[in-house]
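From the methods appendix. Each design record in this collection lists the discretized structure first, followed by the designed amino acid sequence. Records were kept in a plain field format so they could be parsed without special tools. The example shown here is representative of the layout used throughout.

RECORD:
C-ALPHA CELLS (230 positions):
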C-alpha cells in the first residue's frame, strides 16, 4: 500500500469510526494492522485500553517507556495489571542510564531542561520501538489539552511514520472512569490523590481544585507535552 492509498484508508476509517465504540475501532485496527502495538503509561485511559485489548486481542504487544523515574505506584500498577491479565509489558528503556545522563548533561536535567530530558528518556526510545510496527494505539483524548483538541480517532503520525489509533479521543474523563468502575479495572492509586495526569515523579505534582487537569505536569515551565503526541 502506497502513502496515498494509506491516507485514503485512514481518512475513511476516521469518518467511519467517529461515532462508533472504542472496542469497534480496536477490533478493526488489530485485524487491519497485525503489526500494531499499544503504548501504555499506566494512566486511567491506558488501563482502560489494556482491559479492552485483552478482551479483543490479548496477544497484541503492549509497551511502556520506562524512564527509570516513574512513581512507585506506577510500577506497582504495572505489576498488578501483568498479574491480572497474565501478560508481560514490553519494557522500553532509554539509551542512557540516569548516571550517564547526569554525567553528560548535569544532575537533575529535568529541572534545567525538561524538554531535553523527555527527548532522552521518552521520545528517542519511542522512536526506536515504533520502528518495529506499522501502527500504534494511544489513550489520548481531545479534552485533555488544547494541543489535543483536533485529534482524530485514526490518523497518520507524520512524526513517527505510521498509523495512529486514538480510540478514546471522543471520550470524557467521566467516560473513562465509568468504564474503570463498571469493569473493575486496576488503576494507579495516585489518581485518587489529585493526580489526574501522571508522568515522571520529578515532573508531576498534585492538581488543586479548579486547576487544569494537566497543570501538574512540568509545573513552572511552559511545557505541556513531552513530545510523544506532537
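DESIGN:
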Amino acid at each position: 500500500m502506497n502513502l496515498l492509498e494509506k491516507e485514503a484508508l485512514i481518512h475513511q476509517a476516521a469518518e467511519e469510526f467517529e461515532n462508533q465504540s472504542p472496542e469497534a475501532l480496536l477490533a478493526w485496527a488489530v485485524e487491519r494492522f497485525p503489526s500494531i502495538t499499544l503504548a501504555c503509561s499506566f494512566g486511567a485511559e491506558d488501563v482502560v485500553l489494556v482491559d479492552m485489548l485483552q478482551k479483543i486481542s490479548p496477544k497484541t504487544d503492549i509497551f511502556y517507556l520506562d524512564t527509570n523515574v516513574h512513581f512507585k505506584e506506577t510500577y506497582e500498577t504495572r505489576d498488578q495489571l501483568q498479574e491480572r491479565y497474565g501478560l508481560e509489558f514490553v519494557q522500553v528503556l532509554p539509551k542512557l542510564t540516569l548516571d550517564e545522563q547526569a554525567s553528560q548533561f548535569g544532575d537533575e536535567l529535568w529541572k534545567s531542561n525538561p524538554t531535553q530530558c523527555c527527548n532522552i528518556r521518552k521520545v528517542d526510545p519511542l522512536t526506536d520501538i515504533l520502528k518495529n510496527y506499522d501502527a500504534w494505539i494511544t489513550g489520548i483524548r481531545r479534552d485533555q489539552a488544547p494541543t489535543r483538541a483536533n485529534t482524530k480517532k485514526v490518523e497518520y503520525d507524520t512524526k513517527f511514520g505510521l498509523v495512529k489509533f486514538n480510540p478514546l479521543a471522543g471520550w470524557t474523563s467521566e467516560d473513562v472512569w465509568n468504564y474503570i468502575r463498571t469493569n473493575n479495572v486496576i488503576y494507579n492509586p495516585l489518581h485518587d490523590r489529585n493526580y489526574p495526569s501522571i508522568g515522571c515523579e520529578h515532573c508531576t505534582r498534585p492538581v488543586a481544585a479548579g486547576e487544569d487537569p494537566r497543570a501538574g505536569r512540568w509545573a513552572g515551565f511552559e511545557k505541556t507535552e513531552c513530545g510523544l503526541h506532537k
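APPENDIX NOTE: The beta strands are 36-39, 61-65, 90-92, 135-137, 154-157, 162-165.
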